[in-house]
Amino acid sequence: MSEWVKKQLSQLALLSKGQQMAKIHLEKEGDYYVLNGGQNPSGYLNKWNTEADTISISEGGNSCGYVAYNSTRFWSGGHNYALKNLSKEICLLYLYEYLKFKEPDIMRLRVGSGLPNIQKKELSKVQIQFSTNKQEQEKIAEILTTIDIAIDKTTAIIEKYKAIKEGLLQDLLTNGIDENGNITESEKRTGVWAWRHPHHDGSVTYTRLMGDVRLFVNTLQHAVDLMTQRGIPAVTSCEQADGFLEYTVRIPTATPAPLPVPNTLPACHEPEMPNGEGSSLGEEDAFVRS
Q: How far, in Å, are 15, 116, 248 from residue 125 at the CA level?
């Protein structure tokens, strides 16, 4: 049965402070990135001073204590610690995952009010708990790394949806009315709702909506159509019963294969108005509001 022990970080790795590189020598592009106290590279060089597969801990600045795993060679700057010469009793990825777990505690080691930093002496004392069975360490690290990958993918999906949302907001423009009574697009809310009709000759006309039920239904359907055009297989369903219109929109939380954009709307997307007239929209029509 494996035993769990605790050792100071300095007993498991050499904390090596990097070499400061003047900003004038840094490039916007290069073969190797420079870590110098932040979460992101300070710049790039065509030379390196630290091997790949190295754990780094930010030494100074607002991000001091930030733990990173570097899978490629890089330049370790003067405000960065690189963990070198790892003990054979500790698994590299396990140590990274454990330090990442302890990152909030490491960040609390910072001192100084102007440019905060973490002293090497204090960082060396950080306690690392690990199994004496290295295979057990590797298994734990494998599980945690898989979770990290899943988190990264989820974050990418969230960013994609944010970008799509921004696109939708660009399509759902705001409108106003000029001094001649004509509907115009406006960046401010004016209380005027309209469909935007772009024409092949480059001109644009608007049809004002007066706020009947078509305003609600067509707005939702237009948003869903835009999502499906951008690869999100959103679907709608609509039922009418007991004098009510029940409209359901389903948007997947994952990213399955895109569905084809429907050519027609459900029958209840064009509810009959009291005067018996429905509403008709062209394929290039867009809903705009204020």
A: 11, 19, 57
